[in-house]
Structure formats: structure tokens, C-alpha cells
Amino acid sequence: MNEAEDAQGVQGVRDATGVIKLLLAEDQGMMRGALALLLGLEDDFEIVAQLGNGDEIVPRALETRPDVALLDIELPGRSGLDAAGALREALPECQVLILTTFGRPGYLRRAMEAGAAGFLVKDGPVEELAVAIRRVLAGERVIDPGLAAAALSAGPNPLTQRERDVLSAAVDGATVADIAAKVHLSPATVRNYLSSAIGKTQTRNRMEAVRAARQNGWL
User: Fold this and answer.
1) How far is CA 162 from CA 54, 62, 69, 93, 179, in A?
2) Cβ atoms 188, 77 nearer than 8 A
3) Percentage helix, strand, coil, to 5, in the chain?
4) Residue spans of alpha helices (H) in 55-144
5) Burial of 202 by CB count in 10 Å (0-12 exposed, 13-18 middle, 19+ buried)?
6) Which residues contact residue 82 at a Cβ distance below 8 angstroms, ignoring those fewer than 6 apart?
7) What is the 8-class DSSP label of residue 71?
8) Do residues 64 and 34 make contact, with C-beta atoms less than 8 angstroms apart?
9) CA–CA separation, 178 vs 42, rounded Å?
10) Pairing mode of beta strands 45-51, 95-100
11) Taking every annotated instance into account, which residue ranges of this chain make up the domain HTH luxR-type (predicted)?
């Protein structure tokens, strides 16, 4: 293997200039600006989009064609996890790296199911993030090691999609009627899903079930 081939293997697929184009989705403006500034100091990185809303991720990615998308999880509009799956379908050549404050095993499992190539928590140094970006572009999977071990011991998400939908709609203390209207189900069906979710989370009521599901990253 010559030097050019070796460099391509390390760097992954880049444009003709060797620049890695990055899309950054983070709802906190100060954090987003700081990450963009620090990553922009890397000679081979270019920030092509900075977003604060999850609904903007796929349209802007199709417009700017990033090599790697750095996505927070909890975003206004579509969550980073939901956007990750949609982005992988719309632009499969773009690698997705989840970067979040919430290092929860359930989130990791959902990210991997959505096709994300990496999952890191935000408390690491930016140098490690830069290395992770290059690694996922080279075809590797990068996961916070502590979180990977926790995910293996935590087991799969016990909630069905409908149970997750109903619990998500109950986050703000909504009534059964409100939840039913939001998820387009009958009140009786909503009660059944809530009861099932409460049993699976081993909690006493819907609000405890919501808290338990969120703490485990199931919502």
C-alpha cells in the first residue's frame, strides 16, 4: 500500500480537498458555537451547517452534503435519535455520531438501531471527538466504553412503540383524554397501554413510568 492509499484508509471518504464536512445539531446556542469553534480549528474540518432544531437536520444535510453529522439527542422538533434514522435513509453516505449529555444505555441501543456509527457523551475533550469523527468516517464504530458495558447489562427496551408513544404524550401530566387525542387512540386503549407500561417499568403510576423510561433512555 502506498502513502496515498494509506492516508485514504485512515481518513475515510473525503472530498477532493481532503476536507471533512460536518453538520452540527445542538439546541444550546453556546455549546453549539463552542463546538463549532473548536472543531473548526482542525485543519481538515469544515462546519457546513449549525442547527438548533431536529426538524432541520435532514433538509440541511441534503443541501450541504456533510460527511459526518454530530447530533444531540434532545432537540426541539425531531429528536436526534429519530433524525439519525431518517438521515441514514436520506443520505446513507453521511456517518452519524450521537453526542449527548445523557449517557443512557437505552439511548445507545436506539442510536445503534437507527444506524449511528458512534455515540459519545459530551464530557470528553474535543481532541477525542476529533479522533472519533475521523474514525467513523473511516468506517469504524465509536462508542463510549463505559456506556457500552452498561448497555450490555441493562438489556433491551421492554416497551413497545405504542407504549413509548403513550408515555411520551404523558410527559407533561396530560390527561388520558389529552393523550388519546394526541396519539389518535381511544381512551380505553390509552389506559391499557399505560397500564402495560407501568407494569413493565415496575412503577406505581404513569408519571413514575415516564421518569423510569426516560432515565433508562427508553423514550
Assistant:
1) 22, 30, 29, 31, 12
2) no
3) 55, 15, 35
4) 57-64, 80-90, 105-113, 126-137
5) exposed
6) 54, 114
7) E
8) no
9) 49
10) unpaired
11) 152-217
What's the CA gap between 165 and 161, in Å, rounded?
A: 6
- CA atoms in the 13 A half-sphere facing the CB of 137: 27
User: If residue 24 lies in a helix (H) or strand (E), which one and from where to where?
Assistant: strand 20-25
Question: What whole-number distance in Å separates Cα of residue 24 and Cα of residue 17?
Answer: 21
Question: pTM, whole model, 2 decimals?
Answer: 0.68
Beta bridge partners, 20, equal 45
User: Sheet harboring 142-143: ordered strands across?
Assistant: 45-51, 20-25, 68-71, 95-100, 118-121, 142-143
pLDDT computed for residue 14 by the predictor = 55
Residue 217 grid cell: 433512555
- State the DSSP code for 56: G
Q: Give the Cα separation of 133 and 147 in Å (integer).
A: 18
Using 70 as the pLDDT threshold, list the residues of the chain that sit under it: 1-17, 103, 146-155
Whole-number Å distance between alpha carbons of 53 and 23 = 12
Which residue's entry shows cell 427496551? 157
C-alpha cell at 75: 432537540
Positive or negative torsion for Cα 178, 183, 187, 188: negative
Give the C-alpha separation, 38 to 36, whole Å: 6
Q: Kindly report, residue by residue over 45-70, the tens digit of the pLDDT.
A: 999 999 999 999 999 999 999 999 99
